[in-house]
Amino acid sequence: MAAHNVARGARCGPSLIKEIVYGISLSLMAGYLWKLMHHWNIRRKYKEFYDLLERGEISVVAGGR
After folding, report:
1. DSSP assignment of the chain, as one string?
2. How large a percentage of the chain has pLDDT more than 70?
3. Which residues are listed as membrane-spanning (predicted)?
4. How many Cα atoms sit within 13 Å of 57 on the Cβ side?
């Protein structure tokens, strides 16, 4: 009886709804990961800038028009 259920499941094609849900889920997870890594990179750049500024290795000159 179990073999009959397995064979029946193998004959069915992919479910369109499941494929759409899987695709949306994967794309949302990838987008969230990219955004998280992007924010970490920006945060790291700001931290490096302010560390260099504190140590006196760089300086900031205000320029105006």
Report:
1. -HHHHHHHHHHS---HHHHHHHHHHHHHHHHHHHHHHHHHHHHHHHHHHHHHHHHTSS-------
2. 80
3. 20-37
4. 6
* Total-model pTM: 0.59
Report CA 5 to chain centroid distance, whole Å. Answer: 38
In angstroms, rounded to a whole number, what is the distance separating the alpha carbons of residues 5 and 11?
A: 10
Which tokens sit at 31?
């987008």
DSSP letters along 31-48, please? HHHHHHHHHHHHHHHHHH
| Angle, CA of 28, 30 and 36, to the nearest 5° | 100
The model's pLDDT over 32-56, given as tens digits with 9 standing for 90+, comes to 999 999 999 999 999 999 999 999 9
Answer for the pair 52, 58: CB distance below 8 angstroms, yes or no. Answer: yes
